[in-house]
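Troubleshooting: if your tokenizer reports a length mismatch, compare against these two reference records.
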Amino acid sequence: MSRRVQGLRLWMWQRVSALYLALFLLYIVISILMLEQFDYPQWHAWISGPVNSIIIYIGFLMLFAHAWVGIRDVIMDYIHSIVLRSLTLMLAGLGFMVCLLWLSRVLIKAILT
């Protein structure tokens, strides 16, 4: 695959994830405003619903995809040493993976309790 096609695909991921994040934020705000009262039992009931959990999980997947493309571009543009660039990309990717695993744990725990 050519470098141009890869760049276009990443550009497209950035735009699609931004659109989903905008709609996701709108959904979250409207859903929270529609709750009768915003306390822990209401929030827990709302977040433990299967549809909301899936929407939230996809929202964070899109957030991480969006952030990864942005961070990757900044790192590729401003860190010129190949070793340092590779290490920085690896640490950023590892950080995103840890955050995603933590989010999965939180959502699973919220659904099961």
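Reference record two:
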Amino acid sequence: MISPKYRQVVFAFLMSSFMSFIMSMIITFINLGFIDGFFLKWMEAWIKAFVFAFPIILIVAPVVHKLTNKLVNKG
């Protein structure tokens, strides 16, 4: 298992992987439709999106967690 001290990095990696994978597929489909070579175009878009998404989530996630904690009633 991965040490809990890497929780934020693992979270950012997984979140950016899933989000960039799904969003790149949707945007590629919207722009091109299901053309020949769709999968390769999608994978190219996914890699490019992930390269940006991972560091962005590393930076933005802590801010979002703080905002969420301020907005949500702790009961």
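Descriptive notes for reference record two:
- The first helix runs from residue 7 to 32.
- The chain is about 80% helix and 0% strand.
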